[in-house]
Amino acid sequence: MRLLLVEDDNHVAAALSAVLAKHGFQVTHARSGEEALQALVPEGNGFGVVLLDLGLPDQDGYEVCGKIRKRTSTPVIMVTARSDVRSRIHGLNLGADDYVVKPYDTGELLARIHAVSRRTAHEDPATGGDSALLLGPVRIDLPTRQVSVDGSAVQLTRKEFDLLALLAQRPGVVFRREQIISEVWRTSWEGTGRTLEVHVASLRSKLRMPALIETVRGVGYRLVAPAA
């Protein structure tokens, strides 16, 4: 995914860009509101998410968010040190899709980026209502929550489907165990690790494709897209 990072601090931007790159993102760095707005021409310019720091040197970050929303539907995650509810509500009313307060955990930030990109992908009218992921012989129909392999339906539990859909959104990208637990089970890692392992094993068995989900030792899992 291409990500636009709007951050005036070069040191912060360099460190965050390195982390995002390790997780499969192609990062473009804009140092000001004007640079960000120019980067988004025309109509989002292919970016999947905008990570917008509100402390910009040339324009108020909230104003930049409003301008971005007028130009494109690209999801925007605001990043700020302001933690009061009124500031968050103001940002969301301007069209931000999410709000992260500094200092933040990198894992939480990654989870929020993936969450808003998936949510907006499901809502994108350009999909023509056929929001399906095709991975070789595997078809994952997101609206109907149906999965098939070579045209044959595979019955999955709700959590099995959520897990598969999460990994399939970013083939090749490593999802940390903590991130998966947070997004699929909506809870913390403690006591849920074994549940994740069981669900991964069940998916491999039901899909009859043990190599589809790869274990990245000490980190988490990633989906390896099979050949068509």
Automatic annotation (TrEMBL):
Domain Response regulatory: 2-117
Source taxon at top rank: Bacteria
Matching CDD domains: trans_reg_C (cd00383)
Entry GO terms, CC: cytosol; protein-DNA complex
PROSITE patterns reported for this sequence: OMPR_PHOB (PS51755), RESPONSE_REGULATORY (PS50110)
Modified residues (4-aspartylphosphate): D53
Biological process per Gene Ontology, one example term: regulation of DNA-templated transcription
Gene3D superfamilies in UniProt: 3.40.50.2300, 6.10.250.690, Winged helix-like DNA-binding domain superfamily/Winged helix DNA-binding domain
Every OmpR/PhoB-type domain range: 130-225
One Gene Ontology molecular-function label: transcription cis-regulatory region binding
Keywords: DNA-binding, Phosphoprotein, Transcription, Transcription regulation, Two-component regulatory system
DNA-binding residue intervals: 130-225
Pfam families: Response_reg, Trans_reg_C
Record protein name field: Sensory transduction protein RegX3
